[in-house]
Every structure is written in C-alpha cells, then in structure tokens.
Amino acid sequence: MTTETATQILHATHSALCKHGYAELTMQDIADETDLCKASIHYHYDGKHDLLVAYLDHLYEQFEDRIAEPAGETPAERLRGLVVALVTDRSDAPAFQTALLEIKAQSPYDDAFRSRLQRFDHAFTAAVREVVAEGVADGTFHEEVDPDAVASFLTTYVNGAQTRHAAVGHPLDDSAAAVDAYIDEALRADQAASTGGGPSSETANVGGTE
Amino acid sequence: MTTETATQILHATHSALCKHGYAELTMQDIADETDLCKASIHYHYDGKHDLLVAYLDHLYEQFEDRIAEPAGETPAERLRGLVVALVTDRSDAPAFQTALLEIKAQSPYDDAFRSRLQRFDHAFTAAVREVVAEGVADGTFHEEVDPDAVASFLTTYVNGAQTRHAAVGHPLDDSAAAVDAYIDEALRADQAASTGGGPSSETANVGGTE
DNA sequence: TCGAACTGACTGTCCGGTCAGTCAAAAAAA
DNA sequence: TTTTTTTGACTGACCGGACAGTCAGTTCGA
C-alpha cells in the first residue's frame, strides 16, 4: 500500500482511539475515520491487533523525535521541558492519555504491547538520564546527583501523574509544579533547598501527548 | 440474600478478576468461582456493572481497615508501612494490581468507578498526610515539611510505581527503595542532608537507589 | 403453600474476520 | 496504438463466536 494510505489508517486509528477509547474501539470505528471500509483495513493489516501494534510503532517514532533534543538553554530547562511535555494538559489529547493508559493496562496480557511500551519507558528514562548527566557535568546540578536514580525516579513519577490524572482527575498542573519544585530543590546546585513537601515525583507516560 | 452469599459472590469476583483480568472478565467466569450459576448472580445483582461497583465498595472497606492505623513505632516507620504496603510485590496479588489498573483506565468512562477510585485516592492521601503531620509535630520530620504536598507527592509516586510495574515490569522493590530513600533524605530531621544545600532537607537522591 | 433462591435454555446483539466479486490502472500481448 | 490480461485496492454482505441479560419453571425452607 502507499505510505499515504498507511498514514491515513494510522491517523484514523488515533482518532478512533481518542473518540472511543481502547476498550470500546472497533474496526468499524477506525474505518469510519477513513474513506475506506472495514474490509479494506483488514486488507492492509492482518487484524486488529496487528494494526494496534503498528500504531504503537508509529507513535514511538513521533515520541522519539519529540524527546530527541530537548529544547532549552540550560540542563534544568531541558529537563523541565522533557518532563513537563508529558505532564501537561494539552487540549488536543485529553482522551489520548486515557487510551494510552488502557493500553498500558493490557500490556501484561500482550507481549507485543509490552515490548513497545518498554521502548517508550527506556527512551524516556534515557533522555532524562542524559540531560541530568549534562547538568551534573556542567555544574548546574549537584555533583552527588545520580542520573540513573533521578531518571528512574522521574519516570515513575510521570507515570503516576498520568495515571492519577486519568483515573481520579488529579490535575496535571499540580504534578508538573511538583516536578519543577523537585528540580529546583533537589537537583539545582545554585538553589537553596527549602524542603517541604514540594517534590513529588512521578513519571509515567509513554506515549506522549499527541 | 444472605451476607454469606454476597461475600461468596464478591470473593468470586475477586478471583475471576485476578484470573482473567478486567477486560476479559465474563459473568460466567465469576459464576465458575461460585457454586451458583450465571443467572443466579444476575438474580442478586442488577448486572455486571452493578456487581463490579459493589466489588469496589467491598474492596474499599478492606482498604480502609488496612490503612486505618499504620503499624510502627515512629511516624517514619508508619509512613513507610503505609506506602510500602501498596508498593510491595505480594505473591497473592500479582494479577490483582493489573486488574486494578484496568479499572483505573476505565474510570474516565464510568462515573461510578471514578467516584470509588477517588475514595481510594483521598483515603490514602489523607492517611499519609496524617502520619506526616504527626512526624512534623513530634520532630521526626523537618518542620518545613508540608504534609499536604508530601501526601500528594507520595500518592502520585505510588500510582506511578504500580502503573510502571504492571505496564513495563519495573520492579516494585526499586520503587519501594526509592521511597525509603525519600523518607530518610527529604523528610527525616535527624538525617544529614546529602547535598550541600542548606539546613533544610535535600532531596537530591530522592529517586533512591534503584 | 408461599416465596425466595436458583437454574438451564434461550435470545439479541455486537464485532472480528472472511469472501466473492468490482474496478481501475498497470503490464503484456496483439 | 489498441486490445487483453493481470494485479492490487477496495467493498458489501455475510458468518460464527462470544457474551450480557432474560425467562419460564424447579427446588426448598419457613
């Protein structure tokens, strides 16, 4: 098939996923976002599962690009950009985060999903680790800061922020603010530590906002 | 119906949920964990959704008891007990956490689920806040520690640990260790802050060792 | 004997997947 | 060039399985 058709179907999958959620997603829903019929999608993809996996791969490529070179002058800004990008309420994708959580929840039952999600997790952790290491190297962050520990910590925190937002409506802004406080208070070498309950960490999100 | 029958069905719901997961759960699966037939369950509950909601309520009662009076001499120990109880790999419930995540992921589509999950969230946050406040009051924790912020922070982190464990297999032990480190380094008044910052706590290594 | 508890058989619906066939454009033959 | 064949893309109609929920009827204890 032409790449145009492929992206059309992948795009339709995204829209349908946001509209109906993963659990309620049907092939017809996807076809409805297309000028093709249901059978045509089966013609291009071996089945629903195949299509979803292709969609996750497609998503990962975008995610990879997005976290590849964090914008910002200082490591602190880049770190903030990296994390906050996943913990910000983008009006274009309220339902997307929810659908992604549904997929995460299916991951234990589906090896293909699981390996894809692991790629997201590893990529994000690696990106954070990289930026933190830069910060430690150039003196932005305390020298005792362990990039591995911080990266894993933030990844877990981001996961929590996303889950808690989707599940109980805990504001993403609150979680983002807590990360900001964490960066300032726990990592930055030039900031006075003010303790307090500030730093809450979380991590999580795989897919990003799209 | 007798409360015995009720608990039998609720128990069966739990077992079936762990065995099959939420997405694949059928009324027949639940009935199979019972000495009743499918129709009998429909006789006692208005439907699948009703039963699941009753199950969540049942679950909440147990949860409430569990976090009601955290065990431990010091606030630090009680806080640890509170958090680690939710971030420990209990052999009896590997699949249970996954099923719970599936339910969380459905929460945005289901008001009854959502309100129940919010009760869990609020109860846990309140329990943490309480213990932290005790710790601040008796000098175990720094006086600058904000119980509200710490409670929200830890709740989010716990969510992240659970999600990341289920979704990509990130070890719960690692997350638990990070929380231990957080308590020691960011909250406890008698611990030396590892960073150069100031007199107040430092959370440089909040992420822990993992 | 009355009614609550329970059951087996059944129904309606939904959905993933299949299939025979259409159609247009490319390739091959004339 | 014109005609024929092939092929890839696509479609409407259909199939079969799964599952929530129903219902007429049975069982059994009070």
Low-confidence stretches of chain A: 193-210
Oligomer: homodimer
Instruction: Using the coordinates above, name the CATH class of the domain at 71-210 in chain A.
Output: Mainly Alpha
Order of helices and strands of chain A: HHHHHHHHH
> What percentage of the residues of chain A does DSSP assign to strands (E)?
under 5%
Based on DSSP secondary structure assignment, what is the total number of beta strands of chain A? 0
Per CATH, the superfamily of the domain at 71-210 in chain A is Tetracycline Repressor, domain 2
Question: How many helices of chain A does DSSP assign?
Answer: 9
Structural class of chain A: mainly alpha
Average pLDDT of chain A: 89
Shape of chain A: elongated
Radius of gyration of chain A: 19 Å
Q: Give a short account of the largest sheet of chain A.
A: none
User: Would you tell me which CATH topology of the domain at 71-210 in chain A applies?
Assistant: Tetracycline Repressor, domain 2
User: What separation lies between the terminal Cα atoms of chain A?
Assistant: 25 Å
Most extensive chain interface and residues per partner: A-B, 67 and 67 residues
CATH architecture of the domain at 71-210 in chain A: Orthogonal Bundle
Helical residue percent of chain A? 55-70%
What's the short version?
The structure is a homodimer of 210-residue chains. Chain A is mainly alpha-helical.
Could you please describe the fold and organization of this structure?
- 2 copies of one chain form a homodimer.
- The first copy, chain A, contains 9 helices and no strands.
- Chain A has 210 residues and is mainly α.
- The first copy, chain A, has a domain at 71-210: Tetracycline Repressor, domain 2 (Orthogonal Bundle), CATH 1.10.357.10.
- The two termini of chain A are 25 Å apart.
- Mean pLDDT of chain A is 89; it is low at 193-210.
- The interface between A and B is large, with 67 and 67 residues.
- Chain A binds a DNA duplex (30 and 30 nucleotides) through helix 3.
